[in-house]
Design goal:
single chain; alpha/beta; D-Maltodextrin-Binding Protein, domain 2; 15 helices; 11 strands
């Protein structure tokens, strides 16, 4: 009888311990493939770290390549609880996120991806108007990102301004499409997943995207020429946006875990993205792709566009109901300049140094007991 009692007690203890350690399962959504730098670190590794650091209280099941939500539905999907955290490309929802798109269209002000990733993250977490926009859309903003610089990856040579006229360029919408029109090209707004088909079928002359696409979207098989004119970089929306009921249901201690891990992968992602670009470009060059620098006609056309487009940004934002977009842009520019200076003082190839900077300058200043709750 004593042995039976001991066994019963042991079983009860084990069941209790197992239940306590069992992770709550949640959905994490990204529309890029798992091998992409925006997924493999900030989502796949991130999910493992969060499960470890929360002692199994939070376990994310990562859905990639649009297997849970298509790109245009990610904002609604996280709001409705289909996913508890998601990536969202802001240009898919310009009416719902006019402020996020306003700052996202500032991609030509500073084309350093690391600067823009950190500046957009601080803006998204701290700017009152932007915070109100997230709240209206039922999302708790967690952190941002930036692609590497966008280049023209083409199946035809583009050397001069004259060469680009009439060419069909896949663009990310917004300022990129306006730049295409400015130089006499034809902007084509399609998802990145359709770039290969467009170039292969001849419905596109160039895909304007980060050059990791040569590998991650297999564009090296259909691209013969790449022009390194820096056509901005993409950071509109968010890398991590959380469902409100989920965020409010977890403990402040676990919100701090998420903050710390986002700080780490904000920097890790940028380093890995640039490494992927370097490897993809070298592989494509080895396969015969030609890489050329822009001539003065293209550089001058880009400079003219950047100088003129801010008025368009402001006008578009006002049409979408944004009050005082000039004030918002001034605030965002100040953050860009701040991060340009801060990042010049650290080793930008050191993930830990970048993570520490993100924590001390951004995430440690946010109160995990109130952020996203009040």
């Amino acid at each position: 009888m004593k042995t039976v009692s001991i066994l019963k007690s042991t079983v009860v203890a084990l069941v209790t311990m197992s239940a306590a350690a069992a992770a709550e399962s949640y959905n994490a959504n990204h529309f890029f493939a798992e091998r992409h730098s925006m997924v493999r670190g900030p989502y796949v590794e991130f999910a493992k770290k969060v499960a470890e650091e929360t002692d199994g209280a939070i376990e994310f099941n990562v859905f990639s390549a649009g297997s849970l939500l298509p790109p245009a539905s990610s904002l609604q999907g996280v709001r409705d609880g289909v996913a508890q955290v998601t990536y969202h490309a802001g240009t898919y929802t310009p009416s719902e996120l006019p402020i996020a798109n306003l700052i996202g269209d500032m991609a030509f002000y500073n084309t350093d991806p690391l600067v823009m990733a950190f500046a957009s993250t601080e803006f998204g977490l701290t700017n009152p108007e932007q915070q109100a926009e997230w709240k209206t859309n039922g999302v708790v903003y967690g952190g941002g990102y930036s692609t590497s610089e966008y280049f023209m990856q083409c199946n035809t040579p583009i050397r001069t301004l004259e060469d680009i006229k009439g060419k069909r360029l896949r663009m990310a919408g917004g300022a990129w499409s306006r730049f295409a029109e400015h130089v006499g090209a034809v902007p084509v707004s399609i998802p990145s997943s359709e770039m290969y088909t467009g170039l292969d079928a001849g419905s596109l002359d160039c895909a304007v995207a980060a050059a990791d696409a040569l590998d991650s979207f297999s564009l090296k098989d259909v691209v013969t020429d790449m022009n390194t004119l820096p056509i901005g970089n993409y950071y509109a929306g968010f890398e991590w946006g959380y469902n409100v009921p989920f965020w409010q249901s977890i403990t402040p201690e676990n919100r701090r875990v998420l903050f710390n891990q986002m700080a780490y992968y904000l920097g890790e992602h940028r380093i890995e993205f640039d490494k992927d670009v370097e490897k993809a470009v070298q592989s494509a060059k080895d396969g015969g792709m030609t890489v050329v620098d822009p001539d003065d006609t293209l550089k001058n056309a880009l400079a003219e566009f950047v100088a003129a487009d801010e008025a368009t940004l402001v006008a578009n934002a006002k049409e979408r109901g944004v009050e005082d977009p000039e004030v918002i842009l001034t605030s965002f520019k100040a953050l860009i300049d701040k991060w340009d200076a801060l990042l010049a003082q650290v080793d930008t190839a050191d993930v830990e140094a970048l993570a520490e900077l993100a924590r001390t300058e951004i995430y440690d200043k946010i109160d995990e007991t109130t952020y996203g709750v009040n």
